[in-house]
Amino acid sequence: MAVLIVIIGVVLGVCLLSTALLRWNEMKYNKKGLPPGTMGWPLFGETTDFLKQGPSFMKNQRARYGSVFKSHILGCPTIVSMDPELNRYILMSESKGILPGYPQSMLDILGKSNIAAVHGPAHKNMRGALLSLVSPSIIKHQILPKIDEFMTSHLSNWTDQIIDIQQKTKEMALLSSLKQISGIESSSLSKEFMPEFCKLVLGTLSLPINLPNTNYHRGLQARKNIVRMLGELIDERRNSKETHEEDMLSLLMSGVDNRYKLSDEEIIDQIITILYSGYETVSTTSMMAVKYLHDHPKVLQELRKEHLGIRERKLAGDPLDWEDYKSMKFTRAVIFETSRLATIVNGVLRKTTKEMELNGFVIPEGWRIYVYTREINYDPCLYPDPYTFNPWRWLVRCVLLVLI
Ligand code: HEM
Protein backbone atom coordinates (compact mmCIF):
# COMPACT_ATOMS: atom_id res chain seq x y z
CA MET A 1 0.00 0.00 0.00
CA ALA A 2 2.81 2.40 1.01
CA VAL A 3 4.63 1.65 -2.27
CA LEU A 4 1.45 2.43 -4.23
CA ILE A 5 1.05 5.75 -2.43
CA VAL A 6 4.70 6.64 -3.21
CA ILE A 7 4.22 5.75 -6.92
CA ILE A 8 1.01 7.81 -7.14
CA GLY A 9 2.80 10.68 -5.36
CA VAL A 10 5.73 10.57 -7.79
CA VAL A 11 3.43 10.43 -10.84
CA LEU A 12 1.35 13.33 -9.53
CA GLY A 13 4.53 15.29 -8.73
CA VAL A 14 5.92 14.75 -12.24
CA CYS A 15 2.56 15.77 -13.79
CA LEU A 16 2.38 18.94 -11.67
CA LEU A 17 6.00 19.85 -12.40
CA SER A 18 5.53 19.26 -16.16
CA THR A 19 2.35 21.35 -16.23
CA ALA A 20 4.08 24.13 -14.28
CA LEU A 21 7.09 24.12 -16.63
CA LEU A 22 4.90 24.16 -19.76
CA ARG A 23 2.74 26.93 -18.29
CA TRP A 24 5.82 28.95 -17.26
CA ASN A 25 7.24 28.67 -20.78
CA GLU A 26 3.94 29.76 -22.35
CA MET A 27 3.80 32.79 -19.99
CA LYS A 28 7.40 33.70 -20.86
CA TYR A 29 6.44 34.13 -24.53
CA ASN A 30 2.93 35.43 -23.95
CA LYS A 31 3.60 38.89 -25.42
CA LYS A 32 0.77 40.98 -26.84
CA GLY A 33 0.52 40.87 -30.62
CA LEU A 34 2.18 37.48 -31.17
CA PRO A 35 0.29 34.90 -33.25
CA PRO A 36 -1.33 31.93 -31.48
CA GLY A 37 0.58 28.68 -30.92
CA THR A 38 2.45 26.67 -28.28
CA MET A 39 6.05 27.01 -27.10
CA GLY A 40 6.62 23.54 -25.58
CA TRP A 41 9.26 22.90 -22.94
CA PRO A 42 11.75 25.45 -21.63
CA LEU A 43 14.95 25.32 -23.75
CA PHE A 44 13.83 22.32 -25.87
CA GLY A 45 10.58 23.88 -27.07
CA GLU A 46 8.77 21.63 -29.56
CA THR A 47 11.96 20.48 -31.34
CA THR A 48 11.35 16.77 -30.76
CA ASP A 49 7.79 16.85 -32.19
CA PHE A 50 8.97 19.04 -35.07
CA LEU A 51 11.80 16.67 -36.03
CA LYS A 52 9.86 13.43 -35.38
CA GLN A 53 6.52 14.35 -36.96
CA GLY A 54 7.81 16.52 -39.84
CA PRO A 55 5.01 17.81 -42.11
CA SER A 56 2.27 16.34 -39.83
CA PHE A 57 3.43 18.64 -37.03
CA MET A 58 2.89 21.65 -39.31
CA LYS A 59 -0.50 20.40 -40.52
CA ASN A 60 -1.74 19.78 -36.95
CA GLN A 61 -0.62 23.19 -35.71
CA ARG A 62 -2.17 24.90 -38.74
CA ALA A 63 -5.48 23.11 -38.09
CA ARG A 64 -5.42 24.45 -34.50
CA TYR A 65 -3.99 27.94 -34.95
CA GLY A 66 -4.27 28.97 -38.63
CA SER A 67 -1.60 29.63 -41.29
CA VAL A 68 0.63 31.78 -39.07
CA PHE A 69 1.52 30.42 -35.62
CA LYS A 70 4.28 30.53 -33.04
CA SER A 71 6.45 27.67 -31.79
CA HIS A 72 9.91 27.06 -30.31
CA ILE A 73 12.13 24.89 -32.51
CA LEU A 74 15.86 24.12 -32.73
CA GLY A 75 16.63 26.38 -29.79
CA CYS A 76 14.73 29.51 -30.99
CA PRO A 77 11.32 31.11 -30.61
CA THR A 78 9.91 30.83 -34.14
CA ILE A 79 7.00 32.09 -36.21
CA VAL A 80 5.84 29.56 -38.81
CA SER A 81 4.19 31.05 -41.88
CA MET A 82 2.24 28.79 -44.24
CA ASP A 83 0.56 31.78 -45.89
CA PRO A 84 1.77 32.10 -49.54
CA GLU A 85 1.25 35.90 -49.73
CA LEU A 86 3.09 36.51 -46.45
CA ASN A 87 5.85 34.11 -47.50
CA ARG A 88 6.42 36.05 -50.71
CA TYR A 89 6.60 39.30 -48.73
CA ILE A 90 9.09 37.85 -46.20
CA LEU A 91 11.37 36.49 -48.92
CA MET A 92 11.49 39.91 -50.58
CA SER A 93 12.16 41.81 -47.34
CA GLU A 94 15.90 41.44 -46.81
CA SER A 95 16.30 45.23 -47.09
CA LYS A 96 13.59 45.65 -44.41
CA GLY A 97 15.66 43.63 -41.94
CA ILE A 98 14.48 40.03 -42.48
CA LEU A 99 17.74 38.08 -42.95
CA PRO A 100 18.59 34.39 -43.39
CA GLY A 101 18.22 32.85 -39.93
CA TYR A 102 19.57 29.31 -39.82
CA PRO A 103 19.83 27.58 -36.41
CA GLN A 104 22.85 28.24 -34.21
CA SER A 105 23.97 24.59 -34.48
CA MET A 106 24.10 24.94 -38.28
CA LEU A 107 26.05 28.22 -38.18
CA ASP A 108 28.54 26.91 -35.57
CA ILE A 109 29.22 23.71 -37.49
CA LEU A 110 29.23 25.06 -41.07
CA GLY A 111 31.58 27.91 -40.10
CA LYS A 112 31.26 31.67 -39.69
CA SER A 113 32.03 32.39 -43.36
CA ASN A 114 29.49 29.97 -44.84
CA ILE A 115 27.00 31.64 -47.14
CA ALA A 116 24.05 31.20 -44.76
CA ALA A 117 25.90 33.05 -41.99
CA VAL A 118 27.01 36.19 -43.85
CA HIS A 119 24.92 39.16 -44.99
CA GLY A 120 25.27 42.26 -47.19
CA PRO A 121 28.60 42.73 -49.05
CA ALA A 122 30.16 39.58 -47.46
CA HIS A 123 27.23 37.50 -48.75
CA LYS A 124 27.59 39.08 -52.18
CA ASN A 125 31.29 38.17 -52.21
CA MET A 126 30.76 34.53 -51.16
CA ARG A 127 27.89 34.18 -53.60
CA GLY A 128 30.05 35.55 -56.42
CA ALA A 129 32.86 33.13 -55.56
CA LEU A 130 30.46 30.16 -55.49
CA LEU A 131 28.67 31.17 -58.69
CA SER A 132 31.97 31.43 -60.57
CA LEU A 133 32.55 27.76 -59.80
CA VAL A 134 29.43 26.87 -61.77
CA SER A 135 29.72 29.17 -64.80
CA PRO A 136 28.11 27.82 -68.01
CA SER A 137 31.53 27.00 -69.45
CA ILE A 138 32.65 25.12 -66.28
CA ILE A 139 29.35 23.20 -66.20
CA LYS A 140 29.82 22.13 -69.84
CA HIS A 141 33.52 21.31 -69.84
CA GLN A 142 34.24 20.16 -66.29
CA ILE A 143 31.19 19.40 -64.14
CA LEU A 144 29.23 17.35 -66.72
CA PRO A 145 32.17 15.16 -67.87
CA LYS A 146 33.25 14.53 -64.26
CA ILE A 147 29.72 13.55 -63.17
CA ASP A 148 29.39 11.28 -66.22
CA GLU A 149 32.70 9.57 -65.44
CA PHE A 150 31.88 9.27 -61.75
CA MET A 151 28.40 7.80 -62.36
CA THR A 152 29.72 5.24 -64.87
CA SER A 153 32.08 3.89 -62.22
CA HIS A 154 29.59 4.28 -59.31
CA LEU A 155 26.97 2.17 -61.11
CA SER A 156 29.43 -0.33 -62.60
CA ASN A 157 29.02 -3.27 -60.18
CA TRP A 158 25.32 -3.16 -59.24
CA THR A 159 24.24 -6.07 -61.42
CA ASP A 160 22.82 -9.08 -59.50
CA GLN A 161 23.27 -7.40 -56.12
CA ILE A 162 20.87 -6.16 -53.48
CA ILE A 163 21.50 -2.42 -53.30
CA ASP A 164 20.67 -0.09 -50.40
CA ILE A 165 19.56 2.85 -52.52
CA GLN A 166 19.58 5.33 -49.63
CA GLN A 167 23.18 4.45 -48.80
CA LYS A 168 24.26 4.47 -52.46
CA THR A 169 22.66 7.82 -53.24
CA LYS A 170 24.30 9.36 -50.16
CA GLU A 171 27.70 8.04 -51.27
CA MET A 172 26.97 9.31 -54.77
CA ALA A 173 26.14 12.85 -53.60
CA LEU A 174 29.19 13.17 -51.36
CA LEU A 175 31.78 11.42 -53.53
CA SER A 176 30.74 13.16 -56.75
CA SER A 177 30.95 16.57 -55.00
CA LEU A 178 34.38 15.65 -53.59
CA LYS A 179 35.49 14.80 -57.12
CA GLN A 180 34.42 18.24 -58.33
CA ILE A 181 36.21 19.89 -55.41
CA SER A 182 39.51 18.04 -55.32
CA GLY A 183 39.58 15.84 -58.42
CA ILE A 184 42.89 14.13 -57.97
CA GLU A 185 42.96 13.66 -54.18
CA SER A 186 39.25 12.86 -53.79
CA SER A 187 39.60 9.06 -53.72
CA SER A 188 42.34 9.06 -51.06
CA LEU A 189 40.49 11.71 -49.03
CA SER A 190 37.05 10.08 -49.11
CA LYS A 191 37.63 7.18 -46.68
CA GLU A 192 38.59 9.39 -43.73
CA PHE A 193 36.23 12.16 -44.83
CA MET A 194 32.89 10.31 -45.10
CA PRO A 195 32.30 9.28 -41.46
CA GLU A 196 33.29 12.75 -40.23
CA PHE A 197 31.00 14.39 -42.75
CA CYS A 198 28.01 12.28 -41.62
CA LYS A 199 28.60 13.39 -38.00
CA LEU A 200 28.84 17.01 -39.17
CA VAL A 201 25.46 16.75 -40.97
CA LEU A 202 23.73 15.25 -37.90
CA GLY A 203 25.22 17.95 -35.68
CA THR A 204 23.70 20.77 -37.75
CA LEU A 205 20.20 19.50 -36.96
CA SER A 206 20.54 19.34 -33.20
CA LEU A 207 20.08 21.58 -30.19
CA PRO A 208 23.22 23.69 -29.66
CA ILE A 209 24.07 22.21 -26.25
CA ASN A 210 27.73 21.25 -26.14
CA LEU A 211 27.72 18.18 -23.87
CA PRO A 212 29.71 14.97 -24.50
CA ASN A 213 27.82 12.33 -26.52
CA THR A 214 25.37 14.82 -28.05
CA ASN A 215 25.04 15.13 -31.83
CA TYR A 216 26.02 18.80 -31.51
CA HIS A 217 29.28 17.93 -29.71
CA ARG A 218 30.10 15.20 -32.25
CA GLY A 219 29.29 17.65 -35.07
CA LEU A 220 31.72 20.25 -33.68
CA GLN A 221 34.45 17.60 -33.36
CA ALA A 222 33.76 16.43 -36.93
CA ARG A 223 34.06 20.02 -38.15
CA LYS A 224 37.48 20.29 -36.48
CA ASN A 225 38.66 17.11 -38.24
CA ILE A 226 37.29 18.21 -41.60
CA VAL A 227 38.89 21.66 -41.28
CA ARG A 228 42.20 19.93 -40.50
CA MET A 229 41.93 17.58 -43.53
CA LEU A 230 41.04 20.40 -45.92
CA GLY A 231 43.74 22.66 -44.41
CA GLU A 232 46.36 19.95 -45.02
CA LEU A 233 45.14 19.54 -48.59
CA ILE A 234 45.45 23.29 -49.24
CA ASP A 235 48.98 23.34 -47.73
CA GLU A 236 50.06 20.31 -49.79
CA ARG A 237 48.85 21.93 -52.98
CA ARG A 238 50.48 25.23 -52.16
CA ASN A 239 53.83 23.53 -51.43
CA SER A 240 53.66 21.20 -54.43
CA LYS A 241 55.56 22.12 -57.59
CA GLU A 242 53.15 20.13 -59.79
CA THR A 243 50.41 21.91 -61.70
CA HIS A 244 46.93 20.60 -60.95
CA GLU A 245 44.08 19.83 -63.28
CA GLU A 246 41.45 22.53 -62.70
CA ASP A 247 38.94 21.73 -59.97
CA MET A 248 36.89 23.80 -57.51
CA LEU A 249 39.67 23.90 -54.91
CA SER A 250 42.25 25.15 -57.43
CA LEU A 251 39.80 27.81 -58.62
CA LEU A 252 39.08 28.97 -55.07
CA MET A 253 42.81 29.00 -54.23
CA SER A 254 43.57 31.10 -57.29
CA GLY A 255 40.98 33.64 -56.10
CA VAL A 256 38.60 32.51 -58.88
CA ASP A 257 40.58 34.29 -61.62
CA ASN A 258 41.71 36.86 -59.04
CA ARG A 259 38.19 38.25 -58.73
CA TYR A 260 37.38 36.77 -55.32
CA LYS A 261 40.35 36.57 -52.95
CA LEU A 262 39.35 34.32 -50.05
CA SER A 263 41.38 33.39 -46.95
CA ASP A 264 42.08 29.69 -46.33
CA GLU A 265 39.42 29.73 -43.61
CA GLU A 266 36.85 31.17 -46.03
CA ILE A 267 37.82 28.63 -48.73
CA ILE A 268 37.29 25.77 -46.25
CA ASP A 269 33.89 27.13 -45.19
CA GLN A 270 32.83 27.43 -48.85
CA ILE A 271 33.86 23.83 -49.50
CA ILE A 272 31.91 22.61 -46.47
CA THR A 273 28.92 24.67 -47.72
CA ILE A 274 29.05 23.08 -51.18
CA LEU A 275 29.32 19.56 -49.76
CA TYR A 276 26.57 20.19 -47.20
CA SER A 277 24.11 21.93 -49.58
CA GLY A 278 24.37 19.18 -52.17
CA TYR A 279 24.25 16.21 -49.79
CA GLU A 280 20.75 15.55 -48.34
CA THR A 281 19.12 17.48 -51.19
CA VAL A 282 20.68 15.57 -54.08
CA SER A 283 20.82 12.16 -52.37
CA THR A 284 17.17 12.22 -51.27
CA THR A 285 15.94 13.52 -54.64
CA SER A 286 17.88 10.75 -56.43
CA MET A 287 16.61 8.09 -54.04
CA MET A 288 13.01 9.22 -54.54
CA ALA A 289 13.52 9.26 -58.33
CA VAL A 290 14.53 5.58 -58.18
CA LYS A 291 11.46 4.80 -56.07
CA TYR A 292 9.04 6.68 -58.36
CA LEU A 293 10.55 5.05 -61.46
CA HIS A 294 10.18 1.63 -59.87
CA ASP A 295 6.52 2.38 -59.01
CA HIS A 296 5.72 3.79 -62.51
CA PRO A 297 6.94 1.40 -65.25
CA LYS A 298 5.51 3.60 -68.06
CA VAL A 299 7.68 6.51 -66.94
CA LEU A 300 10.72 4.23 -66.72
CA GLN A 301 10.02 2.96 -70.24
CA GLU A 302 9.82 6.51 -71.63
CA LEU A 303 13.01 7.49 -69.82
CA ARG A 304 14.88 4.45 -71.16
CA LYS A 305 13.64 5.29 -74.67
CA GLU A 306 15.15 8.78 -74.39
CA HIS A 307 18.47 7.50 -73.06
CA LEU A 308 18.79 4.57 -75.49
CA GLY A 309 18.03 7.03 -78.34
CA ILE A 310 21.00 9.15 -77.25
CA ARG A 311 23.23 6.06 -76.87
CA GLU A 312 22.35 4.87 -80.39
CA ARG A 313 23.80 8.06 -81.86
CA LYS A 314 27.14 7.47 -80.09
CA LEU A 315 29.99 4.95 -80.13
CA ALA A 316 30.17 2.51 -77.22
CA GLY A 317 32.00 4.13 -74.28
CA ASP A 318 31.63 7.69 -75.66
CA PRO A 319 30.96 10.11 -72.79
CA LEU A 320 27.82 12.24 -72.65
CA ASP A 321 28.27 15.77 -73.97
CA TRP A 322 26.37 19.02 -73.55
CA GLU A 323 24.15 18.46 -76.62
CA ASP A 324 23.10 15.04 -75.26
CA TYR A 325 22.27 16.60 -71.90
CA LYS A 326 20.25 19.41 -73.49
CA SER A 327 18.23 16.91 -75.52
CA MET A 328 17.00 15.05 -72.37
CA LYS A 329 13.58 16.71 -72.24
CA PHE A 330 11.72 13.84 -70.62
CA THR A 331 14.56 13.27 -68.09
CA ARG A 332 14.28 16.91 -67.05
CA ALA A 333 10.51 16.48 -66.58
CA VAL A 334 11.17 13.42 -64.36
CA ILE A 335 13.58 15.48 -62.23
CA PHE A 336 11.08 18.36 -61.89
CA GLU A 337 8.26 15.98 -60.99
CA THR A 338 10.42 14.14 -58.45
CA SER A 339 11.46 17.43 -56.84
CA ARG A 340 7.83 18.55 -56.68
CA LEU A 341 6.30 15.38 -55.28
CA ALA A 342 9.12 14.54 -52.86
CA THR A 343 9.61 18.17 -51.66
CA ILE A 344 13.08 17.82 -50.23
CA VAL A 345 13.25 21.33 -48.79
CA ASN A 346 10.06 22.19 -46.89
CA GLY A 347 10.89 25.84 -46.39
CA VAL A 348 13.59 28.35 -45.52
CA LEU A 349 14.51 30.10 -42.27
CA ARG A 350 14.74 33.84 -41.74
CA LYS A 351 15.21 36.03 -38.65
CA THR A 352 14.02 39.47 -37.62
CA THR A 353 16.70 42.07 -36.86
CA LYS A 354 14.20 44.43 -35.20
CA GLU A 355 10.62 44.25 -33.92
CA MET A 356 8.30 44.27 -36.92
CA GLU A 357 4.66 43.88 -37.89
CA LEU A 358 3.66 41.03 -40.21
CA ASN A 359 0.03 40.36 -41.12
CA GLY A 360 -1.11 42.35 -38.07
CA PHE A 361 1.12 40.36 -35.67
CA VAL A 362 4.04 41.98 -33.84
CA ILE A 363 7.18 39.84 -34.14
CA PRO A 364 9.96 40.61 -31.63
CA GLU A 365 13.58 41.21 -32.65
CA GLY A 366 15.71 38.06 -33.01
CA TRP A 367 12.83 35.63 -33.60
CA ARG A 368 13.12 33.07 -36.37
CA ILE A 369 10.56 32.90 -39.19
CA TYR A 370 10.06 29.54 -40.84
CA VAL A 371 8.80 30.32 -44.36
CA TYR A 372 7.05 27.02 -44.99
CA THR A 373 6.61 26.52 -48.73
CA ARG A 374 5.97 22.76 -48.96
CA GLU A 375 2.18 23.03 -49.48
CA ILE A 376 2.59 24.94 -52.78
CA ASN A 377 3.79 21.72 -54.41
CA TYR A 378 0.45 20.04 -53.67
CA ASP A 379 -1.85 22.90 -54.68
CA PRO A 380 -4.44 21.37 -57.09
CA CYS A 381 -4.86 24.73 -58.87
CA LEU A 382 -1.17 24.68 -59.82
CA TYR A 383 -0.79 20.89 -60.20
CA PRO A 384 -4.04 19.05 -61.04
CA ASP A 385 -4.18 15.65 -59.29
CA PRO A 386 -1.20 16.78 -57.17
CA TYR A 387 -0.37 13.47 -55.47
CA THR A 388 0.11 11.61 -58.77
CA PHE A 389 3.62 11.21 -60.18
CA ASN A 390 3.13 12.54 -63.69
CA PRO A 391 6.27 13.92 -65.44
CA TRP A 392 4.23 14.64 -68.59
CA ARG A 393 2.60 17.61 -66.81
CA TRP A 394 5.96 19.43 -67.17
CA LEU A 395 6.11 18.82 -70.94
CA VAL A 396 2.67 20.41 -71.36
CA ARG A 397 3.82 23.33 -69.18
CA CYS A 398 6.94 23.88 -71.30
CA VAL A 399 4.87 23.89 -74.51
CA LEU A 400 2.44 26.38 -72.93
CA LEU A 401 5.31 28.63 -71.82
CA VAL A 402 6.75 28.61 -75.35
CA LEU A 403 3.29 29.48 -76.80
CA ILE A 404 2.83 32.36 -74.30
C1 HEM B 1 17.59 18.96 -55.06
C2 HEM B 1 18.60 19.76 -54.85
C3 HEM B 1 18.57 21.09 -54.13
C4 HEM B 1 17.54 21.75 -53.52
C5 HEM B 1 16.08 21.31 -53.40
C6 HEM B 1 18.07 23.01 -53.00
C7 HEM B 1 17.31 23.98 -52.35
C8 HEM B 1 17.79 25.20 -51.95
C9 HEM B 1 16.98 26.25 -51.33
C10 HEM B 1 15.50 26.18 -51.03
C11 HEM B 1 17.81 27.30 -51.08
C12 HEM B 1 17.43 28.67 -50.48
C13 HEM B 1 17.83 28.75 -49.05
C14 HEM B 1 17.48 30.10 -48.42
O1 HEM B 1 17.14 31.06 -49.14
O2 HEM B 1 17.57 30.20 -47.20
C15 HEM B 1 19.14 26.92 -51.52
C16 HEM B 1 20.26 27.71 -51.41
C17 HEM B 1 21.52 27.31 -51.74
N1 HEM B 1 21.89 26.11 -52.32
FE1 HEM B 1 20.64 24.61 -52.83
N2 HEM B 1 19.40 23.06 -53.28
C18 HEM B 1 19.75 21.92 -53.96
C19 HEM B 1 21.02 21.56 -54.42
C20 HEM B 1 22.14 22.30 -54.20
C21 HEM B 1 23.49 21.91 -54.59
C22 HEM B 1 23.83 20.62 -55.34
C23 HEM B 1 24.32 22.88 -54.18
C24 HEM B 1 25.82 23.01 -54.31
C25 HEM B 1 26.58 22.22 -54.95
C26 HEM B 1 23.52 23.91 -53.55
C27 HEM B 1 24.01 25.07 -53.01
C28 HEM B 1 23.25 26.08 -52.48
C29 HEM B 1 23.81 27.34 -51.97
C30 HEM B 1 25.29 27.72 -51.96
C31 HEM B 1 22.73 28.11 -51.51
C32 HEM B 1 22.78 29.51 -50.87
C33 HEM B 1 22.58 30.58 -51.93
C34 HEM B 1 22.60 31.97 -51.32
O3 HEM B 1 22.41 32.17 -50.12
O4 HEM B 1 22.79 32.92 -52.10
N3 HEM B 1 22.21 23.51 -53.58
N4 HEM B 1 19.10 25.65 -52.05
Describe this structure in words.
With 404 residues, the protein is α+β, with helices and mostly antiparallel strands. It folds into two domains: 2-113 and 346-401, Uridine Diphospho-n-acetylenolpyruvylglucosamine Reductase, domain 2 (2-Layer Sandwich), CATH 3.30.43; 127-295, Cytochrome p450. It contains 18 helices and seven strands. It has helices spanning 2-28, 47-53, 55-65, 84-91, 104-110, 120-132, 136-154, 165-181, 186-204, 215-239, 248-253, 255-258, 264-277, 280-295, 297-312, 322-326, 329-342, 392-403, and strands spanning 68-73, 76-81, 98-100, 347-352, 356-358, 361-363, 368-372. Strands 1-2-7-4-3 form a five-stranded mixed sheet, with helices on both faces. The protein has a two-stranded antiparallel sheet with strand order 5-6. The model has no long low-confidence stretch (mean pLDDT 90). It binds protoporphyrin IX containing FE (HEM).
Layout of helices and strands, plus pairs?
Elements: H1 2-28, H2 47-53, H3 55-65, E1 68-73, E2 76-81, H4 84-91, E3 98-100, H5 104-110, H6 120-132, H7 136-154, H8 165-181, H9 186-204, H10 215-239, H11 248-253, H12 255-258, H13 264-277, H14 280-295, H15 297-312, H16 322-326, H17 329-342, E4 347-352, E5 356-358, E6 361-363, E7 368-372, H18 392-403
Parallel strand pairs: 2-7
Antiparallel strand pairs: 1-2, 3-4, 4-7, 5-6
Helix pairs in contact: 2-3, 5-10, 7-8, 8-9, 8-14, 9-10, 10-13, 14-17, 15-17, 17-18
